[in-house]
């Protein structure tokens, strides 16, 4: 599309296809999409595409072999011909994008038959988009890429849905198959999307459908009252259940392949079943019952905690909350109710241990939620490629038998980082997070470095590959180095969460404390002397986290309050680690900025300039983080830097 960055689908990515003869066999809407893609490439590069005939004269054959909607495909090359077969339309589309990723190599030599299928069935993006501009949060809550892609001037974008089409295409090319189009904090205007404004949601769904993407909607638990005029939203009330059943029937009347509801209940002020003395299983199951006849799913979020706690109260530990609320409900959720759990116990900090809920509810379908939008990781002004963090999460084994990627039977979900910005993600390099999420959701055990290289090759071509890899690969660890140390988290400016404020959340009601004093820092979450949180893990991890001697350095302050002179497993003291990492982090940003500067001329100048400008801000901010954190801990501890560097 004109004026919009092609991201990982630039013209060149289709050249190897568009210069050849392609046969497409089969019918259906997604086969039409495949045909459209190839025909478009041929129109630009001179190849040809046919929908009839025998394979012999063709270089590429894309063939639908069945009537299903499966996502698997097979790829092979022999006798000078490349063949993709799939028994479902989505599979054929994913097969086409596999050829795009391979580029010319898809048409060279011979390739044994390979079968590809996603490891995770649901690969979803949640948009925290408001239809109207919210007075505090703006249009996209925690959005750092402009306004909403879906909503403008209080309505669905109408004729501008071309932008959504381009988005659907990019998502299909990295394997995403579901999108929730509005914020989980459902305000009044957005609540109405469920009823009288469902036509607008249907218009978006119609644009995403040809790319194999199902549309979901965030709804308010109070909808029967807010929209239906009922006096209660009690999930066991027959009138309430009837209202949801009728409303859901109308939703499916408008959107026959509607994916389902996303619900944030009893969380940060959103209404929920607690008001009626009901459990979250009661709430989720009511919606599951309404969705069930149509094959829909309710994604019920487990982000339930007390956000009005008294900081003086040392017995309440926010990290414990999701486990305490939900584990007793294991086995009570309906088959089409998915419990959507943030990957860490707190809230998308730069480093958290895995949420102990994951692995602790074997009789419940769990979806794991990641955050592509960089709320706590530099807000798309800093380069912070999250692939290594997500990969660590997905490969982690809460118990020996299975990794998180396998336990996420209900799907993998990321909070989207996209807006109406011409580069989609504000920071052009943040596109790598979106792409990586899709590819990891398809194959959670994949090497993130390989995905990064794939993204670089598609987006930039071969020239700056090594430099870009270097700049992005370590950027999450760099960000971690200059921000909150050793897993303690927070230390951000309250409200907007950008930039340092060591005590910003220390005396707040949000349950987000570091407890730094003159002797030490960190939260004692041990069973022996602390909040008991460490005991929520399966035995082998509970033991590891229980003692500061065995706890991994990177989460030490999450689990323990230790003295500044405590010697880490790395051999450094905590205080020296804080100083060293903060100096290193800034030096790494300085180097990355130079590498980026050296790439001018190798890419579109607008893209280069946008990133260069953001590196200036990243460096300024990283220095601010370094100096505030180091000065804070020098002043608290009175222990100087062993290397005598300047601390204020
Ligand atoms: C959509 C954090 C964010 C909120 C977000 C919430 C959630 O608290 O700061 O903006 O609300 O998480 O995940 O529901």
From TrEMBL:
GO terms for molecular function: alpha-glucuronidase activity; xylan alpha-1,2-glucuronosidase activity. InterPro entries: A-glucoronidase_C_sf (IPR037054), GH (IPR017853), Glyco_hydro_67_C (IPR011099), Glyco_hydro_67_cat (IPR011100). SUPFAM superfamilies: (Trans)glycosidases (SSF51445). GO terms for cellular component: extracellular region. It comes from the Bacteria. GO terms for biological process: xylan catabolic process. Residues 114-424 form the Glycosyl hydrolase family 67 catalytic domain. Residues 425-645 form the Glycosyl hydrolase family 67 C-terminal domain. This is Alpha-glucuronidase. It comes from Streptomyces ferrugineus.
């Amino acid at each position: 599309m004109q004026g919009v960055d092609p991201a990982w689908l630039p013209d060149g990515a289709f050249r190897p296809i568009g210069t050849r003869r392609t046969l497409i066999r089969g019918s259906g809407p997604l086969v039409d999409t495949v045909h459209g893609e190839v025909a478009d490439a041929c129109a630009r590069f001179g190849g040809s595409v046919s929908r009839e005939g025998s394979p012999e004269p063709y270089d590429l054959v894309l063939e639908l072999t069945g009537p299903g909607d499966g996502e698997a495909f097979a790829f092979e090359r022999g006798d000078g011909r490349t063949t993709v077969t799939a028994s479902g339309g989505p599979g054929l589309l994913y097969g086409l994008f596999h050829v795009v990723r391979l580029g010319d190599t898809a048409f060279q030599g011979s390739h044994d038959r390979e079968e590809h299928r996603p490891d995770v069935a649901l690969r979803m993006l949640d948009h925290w988009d408001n239809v109207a501009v919210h007075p505090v949060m703006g249009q996209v809550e925690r959005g750092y890429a402009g306004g909403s892609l879906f909503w403008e001037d209080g309505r669905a974008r109408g004729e501008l849905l071309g932008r959504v089409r381009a988005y659907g295409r990019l998502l299909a090319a990295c394997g995403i198959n579901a999108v929730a189009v509005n914020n989980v904090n459902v305000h009044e205007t957005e609540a109405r999307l469920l009823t009288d404004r469902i036509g607008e949601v249907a218009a978006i769904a119609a644009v995403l459908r040809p790319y194999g993407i199902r549309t979901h909607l965030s709804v308010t638990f109070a909808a029967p009252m807010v929209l239906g005029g009922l006096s209660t939203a009690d999930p066991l009330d027959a009138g309430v259940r009837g209202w949801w059943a009728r409303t859901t029937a109308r939703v499916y009347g408008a959107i026959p392949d509607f994916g389902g509801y996303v619900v944030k209940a009893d969380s940060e002020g959103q209404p929920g079943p607690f008001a009626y003395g009901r459990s979250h299983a009661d709430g989720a199951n009511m919606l599951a019952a309404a969705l069930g006849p149509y094959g829909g799913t309710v994604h019920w979020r487990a982000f339930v905690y007390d956000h009005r706690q008294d900081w003086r109260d040392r017995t309440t530990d926010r990290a414990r909350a999701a486990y305490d609320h939900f584990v007793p409900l294991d086995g009570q959720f309906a088959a089409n109710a998915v419990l959507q759990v943030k990957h860490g116990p707190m809230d998308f900090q730069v480093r958290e241990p895995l949420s102990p809920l994951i692995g602790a509810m074997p009789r419940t379908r769990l979806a794991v939620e990641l955050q592509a939008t960089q709320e706590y990781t530099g807000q798309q002004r800093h380069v912070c490629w999250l692939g290594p963090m997500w990969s660590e999460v997905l490969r982690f084994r809460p118990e020996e038998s299975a990794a998180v990627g396998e336990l996420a039977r209900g799907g993998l979900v990321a909070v989207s980082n996209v807006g109406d910005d011409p580069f989609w993600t504000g920071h052009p390099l943040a596109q790598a997070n979106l792409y990586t999420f899709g590819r990891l959701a398809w194959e959670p055990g994949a090497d993130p470095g390989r995905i990064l290289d794939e993204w670089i090759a598609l987006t930039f071509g071969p020239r700056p590959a090594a430099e870009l890899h270097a700049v992005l690969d370590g950027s999450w660890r760099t960000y971690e180095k200059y921000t909150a140390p050793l897993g303690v988290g927070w230390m951000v400016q309250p409200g907007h969460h950008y930039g340092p404020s060591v005590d910003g959340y220390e005396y707040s009601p949000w349950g987000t404390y570091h407890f730094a004093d003159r002797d030490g820092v960190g939260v004692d979450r041990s069973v022996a002397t602390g909040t008991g949180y460490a005991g929520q893990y399966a035995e082998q991890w509970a033991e590891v986290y229980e003692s500061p001697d065995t706890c991994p350095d990177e989460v030490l302050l999450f689990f323990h309050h230790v003295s500044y002179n405590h010697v880490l497993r790395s051999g450094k003291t905590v205080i020296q680690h804080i100083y060293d990492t903060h100096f290193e982090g800034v030096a790494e940003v300085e180097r990355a900025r130079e590498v980026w500067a050296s790439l001018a001329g190798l890419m579109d100048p607008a893209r280069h300039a946008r990133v260069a400008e953001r590196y200036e801000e990243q460096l300024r901010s990283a220095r601010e983080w370094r100096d505030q954190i180091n000065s804070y801990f020098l002043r608290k501890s009175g222990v100087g830097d062993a290397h005598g560097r300047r601390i204020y």
